[in-house]
Design goal:
The chain has 314 residues and is α/β, with parallel strands linked by helices. It has helices at residues 5-17, 20-27, 31-45, 61-92, 103-113, 131-136, 186-189, 205-217, 230-238, 250-253, 288-313; strands spanning 50-52, 57-59, 95-99, 120-124, 142-148, 157-165, 168-172, 194-197, 224-227, 243-247, 262-266, 275-282.
Length: 314
Amino acid sequence: MDADLHCLETFVLLADCGSFSETAVGLGISQPAVSQRVAKLESVTGLRLFLRSQESLTPTREGRELLGIARHILGEHQRLGIRMARHVRESKGTVRVMLDNSFASTAMSTALSGDSSLDIEFASAGKCRPWVEALELHEVDLVVTGSFLEAGNAPSLQRVELERQRGTTIAWNRVYFDFDPARFKFLEILRSTLLVPSERLIPGYLPFLERWCSGSYGMLPPELIAYDDELAARDACLTGLGILIFPGEADLRMQIGGAGLGIVKTSEFPLPDAFSYSAYLRKEEQNPKVLATAAKIAELHRAAQVWERRLQST
């Protein structure tokens, strides 16, 4: 019996992690099933693919050679699936949109879903490849996400900026942290756990923060916990797990302004364009459905901003 793609996928993952149990968990199958797939591939190829010992599992020379071939086959299969899915979307007039895990995108998803003029399929930011790559490979047609400074820019993409915000917001639970906002010094928080956006949530900010702490203060905090979604970061801050530090007006964006937290705005002068919320699409995009959806996203966000300003003024 010929080896199939499942065997190749199992072989690649096992070679990468070196653990039958991790491979089984990653694929959602049992450990015996992992062993059976590897044995099947060895039987079909006539090769011994791994050197096994109690301490380690490493590919043989033949296994390493087959590993490159297997990666290529799996990559081509994945790209074929993406191209086919794109063709189906275009024939149906469907636009695939990836939204980041922010409060703004949650509201955007609701607004887009309620517009009967649009035919939208949503892609989970947590389950797809990094969003720039997903756009370039046509896995998605539009991405709506936050970014730090110019981190979201790419030569192959065009950007529709929806909103820009200044500086950095720092927030903490007053029960667990006794910082005085009136006498606040950034160095004080570097002795505590910091709650920060991951590269999936706000690209560019985490590496900037690490460079800034090391370069300006000669130290890093004892722990940086990176979050893929704003709600989880906000909840962690509210429960006192650490000190939240996000670019832009995070107190308004993440709805923590009225939660009784200690809040400080900083770096507004050196970082006047710290955070942006934008829609991205491919630079050569000609699909009228995609272009119309991008325009609708901009329109909906402008309407949401007007509504928020009215609420804040009352």
